[in-house]
Specification:
The structure holds two protein chains of two kinds. By secondary structure, chain A is α/β, with parallel strands linked by helices. Helices cover 35% and strands 26% of the residues of chain A. Chain A has two domains: 222 residues, Rossmann fold; 59 residues, 2-Layer Sandwich (Alpha-Beta Plaits), CATH 3.30.70. Chain A has eleven helices and 13 strands. In chain A, the strands form three sheets. Chain A has a nine-stranded mixed sheet with strand order 3-8-9-2-10-1-11-12-13, with helices on both faces. Chain A starts with a strand and ends with a helix. Chain B is an alpha/beta fold. Chain B has ten helices and eleven strands. The radius of gyration of chain B is 22 Å and the shape is elongated. The chains are: A alpha/beta, B alpha/beta. Chains A and B meet through helix 4, helix 7 and helix 9 of A and helix 3, helix 6 and helix 8 of B.
């Protein structure tokens, strides 16, 4: 069974709760699909045993010895990536989209493409199973593709090691990486917060998930910040056929556990927060698909 | 000055900082514009209301194939680095997948038969709201399922009027394309950091990128008092000036949760944000 934790809005506690869920299990595959600025590894402390480069795309590179500064490439580039600085052609690696048009139009063959292979996909041992995670090189595009790779590897490992549960820590937002991360999931858990921004982002992600066939759940974290909005979220969940798992009050245990490199449920198993999380996980796992 | 308010980690308080800076700046008389560059999940208009100036579709171009002229030679598809053109010569079928098209123009260049023209499709929406006489908000919002957030962000940034004194870009989280697209045009980047291990991790990644693209960096520590002092140590070691420390306070969170602007409610915070604007204005002149 593949369970993914998403949020829409960043900072709601998605990764902390994913880590807590993960560490309630003895033998699990953890899939960190938040490939752009991921955090789960700070708690799970993976020991990587496979590292694979991932080609996120290509960038254009100019050979200044061949370049005559004719400016044809600048005319054709739609990404404002090319300019002349100090009498030399300069291609911005961050602005370059990798379309290769400059290479094709250059009359001197002065431009070539090089592969951007600084991104990485890792398979690692963690204290209670195996973790697949990745690092998208800063500034890169194509995070959806890297997410798809992480998902594929996690499934292969679960199959090889005969592990029945995959827990996916999803990316924030509603873009391509999120879409890639939910593909094939059996259940989705949304972690939200009772704020104007939290509700607005929740509505956007619910829209995105309209066609998702599996069961969806909602947890309201930091619920006591605004009890009235928490009620609104519960109403929204009922309208949208999403199981309202419950509320977690604001508690500094989230930060304290993080500082200690532990999940909340490892840090203080008897705490009210840990009890709530255990209850939620039990309901998610036992609820028939 | 064009100021990008960014973070790396989500939920550190970017929108909190940018909406408050905007409120204070326009109150003290600066011609100000706040651009919500979090096209995936824009939130600014939840906090700041006004009359709508315009709402326009954010468009990108995609190719259109003239089947009468097309010889199905496949050159356009070979030139496309994004696998966006699907072609089956045997059945005379050719089509672009709009979600994959990056609008680069390579297919047009490739075609030797004049068979390709372009049309526009909507990938999102740009809304302009007038908050006060000298203050405007521009929101970029991406259609659900689209990949090209960066494109929409740049379009929104282009709509800012030329004589605006202070332009604030409320950035998206992360360090990938949408973040880069937002900060590329900025003079200064103000990082909003939360003093936790997750906050530190993402802050380091963002600082690495910003150093690569050569942007001056300043920082605000938000929710100061939660977590530990590793973020402050890191910023000091990188010689990144901390222009304000906003204390962790559940009351601030509760006020913010309802969409209120803290510096409008509380003069102490008005002064804090005023101070930040003055500091950054001085720095901007130096860079």
């Amino acid at each position: 069974m593949e369970i993914i934790v998403l949020s829409g809005k960043g900072g709601t506690g998605k990764t902390s709760i994913s880590a807590a869920f993960a560490t309630l299990n003895q033998n699990i595959v953890i899939d960190d699909c938040d490939v752009d600025a991921s955090n789960l590894h700070l708690i799970m402390q993976p020991e990587n045993y496979i590292e694979e480069p991932f080609v996120a795309g290509k960038k254009a590179l100019v050979n200044n010895d061949l370049c005559t500064l004719c400016g044809t490439c600048i005319e054709y580039c739609r990404f404002d990536a090319i300019s002349i600085v100090d009498d030399k052609l300069k291609i911005s690696a961050t602005a370059c989209d990798g379309c290769k048009l400059c290479v094709r139009v250059c009359p001197e063959n002065a431009i070539s493409m090089f592969e951007n292979n600084l991104s990485r996909c890792y398979v690692a041992n963690v204290r209670n199973g195996t973790m697949v995670h990745a690092r998208l090189s800063p500034g890169e595009d194509n995070s959806g593709k890297l997410v798809a790779l992480v998902k594929k590897k996690a499934r292969e490992i679960a199959k090889d090691k005969n592990i029945s549960t995959i827990l996916v820590d999803g990316p924030p937002g509603i873009g391509c990486p999120v879409i890639a991360s939910i593909s094939g999931a059996d259940k989705i858990v949304l972690v939200t917060e009772p704020t104007i921004s939290g509700i607005s982002d929740l509505q956007r992600i619910i829209k995105l998930l309209k066609n998702f066939k599996g069961q969806k759940y909602i947890i309201v974290n930091k619920a006591d910040i605004n009890e009235s909005y928490t009620l609104d979220i519960e109403k929204l969940a009922n309208e949208e056929n999403i199981v309202f798992l419950g509320k977690i009050p604001y508690n500094k245990i989230f930060t304290d556990a993080m500082v200690n490199c532990q999940s909340v449920t490892e840090f203080e198993p008897k705490n009210e927060i840990s009890e709530l999380i255990k209850k939620f996980w039990k309901e998610i796992i036992e609820n028939k698909i | 000055m064009k100021l990008a308010v960014a973070s790396g980690k989500g939920g550190t308080g970017k929108t909190f900082v940018s909406t408050n800076l905007f409120y204070v700046a326009q109150k003290i008389g600066h011609k100000t514009c706040l651009v919500d560059c979090d096209a995936e999940e824009p939130n600014v208009l939840g906090f700041l209301k006004g009359n709508e100036n315009y709402k326009i579709p954010a468009v990108q171009k995609i190719p259109v194939f003239d089947k009468e002229k097309c010889t199905f030679c496949k050159k356009c598809s070979e030139y496309c680095e994004y696998n966006a053109i699907f072609i089956l010569p045997m059945v005379q079928f050719i089509q672009v997948t709009p979600e994959l098209c990056h609008n680069c123009g390579a297919c047009l260049y490739a075609c030797d038969f004049d068979a390709i023209t372009e049309t526009e499709i909507a990938i999102g929406e740009i809304t302009s709201v007038q908050y006060s006489e000298n203050a405007e908000i521009i929101e970029s919002k991406m259609n659900i399922g689209i990949e090209r957030a960066g494109e929409i962000i740049k379009l929104a940034q282009k709509k800012v009027t030329n004589n605006t004194e202070l332009v604030i870009y409320d950035s998206p989280p992360g360090t990938s394309c949408p973040f880069i697209a937002t900060v590329e045009n900025a003079d200064i980047v103000l990082m909003v950091a939360e003093p936790t291990p997750f906050g530190l991790n993402d802050l380091k990644l963002s600082v690495e990128v910003l150093k690569q693209i050569g942007k001056p960096i300043y920082a605000i520590i938000n929710k100061h008092g939660m977590g530990n002092d590793e973020v402050e140590k890191f910023l000091n070691s990188e010689n990144i000036e901390i222009v304000a420390k906003i204390p962790f306070d559940l009351e601030i969170a509760k006020t913010y949760s309802t969409g209120k602007i803290l510096s409008q409610e509380n003069s102490k915070f008005f002064d804090i944000f005023n101070d930040v604007i003055e500091k950054l204005n001085t720095k901007a002149q130096r860079h």
